[in-house]
Sequence to fold (268 residues):
Amino acid sequence: MISIPILLYHSVSADPLPWIRPLTVSPKAFRRHLELIREAGATALSVTECADALASAGSLPERPVVITFDDGLADFRDQAMPSLRGAGCAVTLFVTTGFLEDLPQARGVTRPAGPWLDSAALLDLREQGVEIGAHTHTHPHLDTLSVGAARAEIASSKEILEELLGAPVPSFSYPHGYHSRTVRRLVRVCGFESACAVKNTLSSSADDVFSLARLTVRADTSLAHLGAWLEGRGAPVAPRRERMRTRGWRVYRRSRAVVRRRPGSDWA
Fold:
């Protein structure tokens, strides 16, 4: 079994906004992360390349790594992309379509402070080889929504991106990693071929392609931790089956959403 570190980034900035600061790495630190990947002899794959190999029992590189970004902040283009391009690393960007600067915001949803990417930026990034994936339209907790509302969030983000890019969008990521059996089924029904969760564990050649484990890279993630992940150490390998405590946490959040009458509540 091959362990696969799938890295989850959110922001690369020297001066992040307070709400995203804990999940932001500096441009200097990010360049060093990419250097570590090169020094480790790892091969960077897109999510779809990785998922295709897993789904077909195909061959993976000896030391695979997957770099992902969630949400769609503009610093991905301005700070992260030049370093990724210089390092020759594949990357997958999961976009919350309702946060794009030039698209109408969803009714009743407040977009966190940006700046965010816009449609022109996404087209340019795709031309540069970035895999663009979907991350819902308004970034809700999908597993606390009704089936109809969850499906609308999943389907609309795919439709918006495919119309914008003029190309299929096969990959998806769950906001905050929250999902359930029903949500995973909806993602498949909506035509996606893979989906990323979080779990903060190593993925592996035995992982579920609709619940790929990722490791969150935070502002305080040390180079030693990142180096260990790249060597298949420093974090457990994701279990194939969902843990009982994960199910319990979902029940609690669903109950809280019902009591507060805010299903899917996230940013508020």
Notes: The helical segments are 27-39, 47-55, 75-87, 119-127, 147-165, 181-189, 223-230, 244-260.
